[in-house]
Design goal:
Blueprint: H1 3-34, E1 37-38, E2 50-51, H2 54-69, H3 81-105, H4 109-125, H5 147-168, H6 174-193, H7 197-217, H8 226-242, H9 248-254, H10 256-271, H11 284-290, H12 295-315, H13 319-343
Antiparallel strand pairs: 1-2
Helix pairs in contact: 1-2, 1-7, 2-3, 2-7, 2-8, 3-4, 3-8, 4-5, 5-8, 5-10, 6-7, 6-8, 6-12, 8-9, 9-12, 10-13
């Protein structure tokens, strides 16, 4: 790696971390002043009124750093990079503002999903599209699919990523830390495996803003990211998994636990006749909390699990091995979900059964 690349990496990481770290206390005060706060109730586990404007610090820090990165002296291999960057920033800005309004006025599920679909459409309009996959068995790329198929896959991918991060944001430091791990893996994969240096600066910036936010959000948290932060992080992580290619498998391995938790919650709620968008304490992190684990134990456990499986994408280039890792992870999580479900209920009361 050339010295100027190393310097660019240092600049991006330092600026993104510094801005996020400096702006988070400002966001905390502004959230309380504007009434963008979370009042303890229901499944919410915090004891005090908390500012929910933490996403502002991450959004501003990431946007500023991403723009700065375009002026750094690194090799650029994507002739559509500026177009895709614009889609990333425009869609992220749209979701941040919609999320901030949701945090203030508490919209229902439908307006949120419409906003997510609109943001995903913004991404597609700026050429952020899943064009093809690598066959994990043969290593060959799939042939070009019809545009309607690629657009549909892209909308689904971005939608599931936004909802995964939004639903993951239930314990202090959980969503920010997991997204930070995904960003780290995408950076290492792009910079050192694919040699996409300019593209790698974007996940590096995302890593920096999550690291700058976590000192204030890790248990006991002093600020929450709110919907404005969760939607922004989910969208940005999803888009970065598409940009440059060959990183969606990395994101899937890192985010496998929260992704499968989303699938589990939807299936469970539908099976008992509940609205799948209606929140409860059925998520794995809430159930583990009800079983007696501390917030820090659960969050650090998530970090370790996501890091181990994310690292698999870095240590091997074998697509069949990655597929096997995904299948193994799925089986392990399925068994874990069954065990946890037998000892807890979605309402949060530990089961009396052995």
């Amino acid at each position: 790696m050339k010295a100027d690349h190393a310097l660019s990496f240092l600049v991006v990481l330092s600026v993104s971390f510094g801005l996020s770290f400096a702006l988070t206390p400002v966001a905390r005060r502004m959230g309380k002043r504007w009434g963008v706060v979370d009042v303890p109730r229901g499944r919410h586990v915090h004891p005090h009124v908390m500012s929910k404007l933490g996403g502002m610090a991450m959004f501003v820090a990431f946007t500023a750093t991403a723009i700065l990165a375009q002026f750094l002296p690194v090799v650029r291999t994507d002739d559509q990079e500026i177009i895709r960057l614009t889609g990333l920033l425009v869609g992220g800005a749209f979701l941040f503002f919609v999320g901030m309004l949701d945090d203030k006025y508490e919209f229902g599920a439908l307006p949120q999903y419409i906003a997510q679909l609109a943001a995903a459409a913004i991404a597609v309009s700026f050429l952020i599209i899943i064009e093809r996959f690598n066959n994990p068995l043969t290593g060959q790329q799939t042939p070009d699919w019809p545009y309607i198929v690629t657009v549909t896959l892209t909308l689904f991918w971005l939608g599931i990523m936004m909802n995964t991060v939004n639903w993951l944001d239930g314990l202090d430091g959980l969503a920010a830390g997991v997204c930070g791990i995904a960003a780290l893996m995408m950076f290492l994969h792009a910079a050192f495996r694919l040699d996409q240096v300019s593209v790698s600066l974007l996940p590096l910036a995302l890593l920096g803003v999550t690291l700058g936010f976590l000192p204030y959000n890790f248990h006991p948290a002093r600020i929450f990211m709110g919907s404005n932060g969760a939607l922004f992080l989910g969208y940005t992580t999803g888009v970065l998994g598409i940009i440059g290619g060959a990183k969606m498998a990395t994101v899937l391995l890192v985010m496998g636990l929260p992704l499968l938790d989303v699938v589990w919650q939807i299936a469970r709620r539908v099976s008992v006749g509940k609205n799948p968008t209606e929140g409860d304490r059925g998520h794995v992190h809430y159930r583990l909390l009800d079983m007696g684990l501390s917030q820090r134990q659960i969050v650090l456990g998530y970090y370790a699990f996501c890091t181990v499986f994310g690292a698999i994408a870095l240590v091997t280039a074998s697509r069949p091995f990655k597929l096997i890792a995904l299948l193994v992870m799925g089986v392990v999580l399925l068994v874990g979900f069954v065990i946890v479900a037998r000892h807890t209920t979605p309402e949060g009361d530990p089961s009396k059964s052995n």
